[in-house]
Design brief:
Elements (H helix, E strand, L loop, with lengths): L4 E3 L8 H7 L3 H17 L8 E5 L2 E6 L5 E8 L2 E9 L7 H14 L1
Length: about 110
């Protein structure tokens, strides 16, 4: 069974996660695409280390490697929405990255 995975779109039609992915080199794009496909294929059955639950309906898709990537997402009406993506450069996730994702989540839910 496959699950619906959507990219958050702003009112102006921009898709920040798609834009982030397109700016990465080919190796990172492939790693990100693989992780999104895992979410698409396994949905709620996908477990750590690939995801981490951060709050009610608020999750992190974890893409490890030399340059770790994080994609925040939510689940609404049985569909996954990719909200925000960034390169993880510090041990602790910067608060502004979380706030950006939560703001976008509020626009969907």
């Amino acid at each position: 069974m496959s699950w619906s995975v959507n990219f958050y779109q702003s009112q102006s039609g921009d898709s920040p996660v798609k834009d982030f992915i397109e700016k990465q080199d080919i190796v990172l794009r492939i790693r990100v695409a693989h992780s999104i496909k895992l979410l698409f294929d396994q949905g709620p059955f996908l477990k750590p280390p690939y995801i981490k639950k951060l709050g009610k309906r608020f999750y992190e898709l974890r893409i490890s490697g030399l340059i770790p990537i994080r994609i925040f997402y939510t689940i609404y009406n049985g569909e996954y929405y990719l909200l925000h993506a960034f390169k993880k450069k510090t041990q602790k996730t910067p608060l502004h990255e979380i706030k950006t994702a939560l703001y976008r989540m509020g626009k969907i839910i």
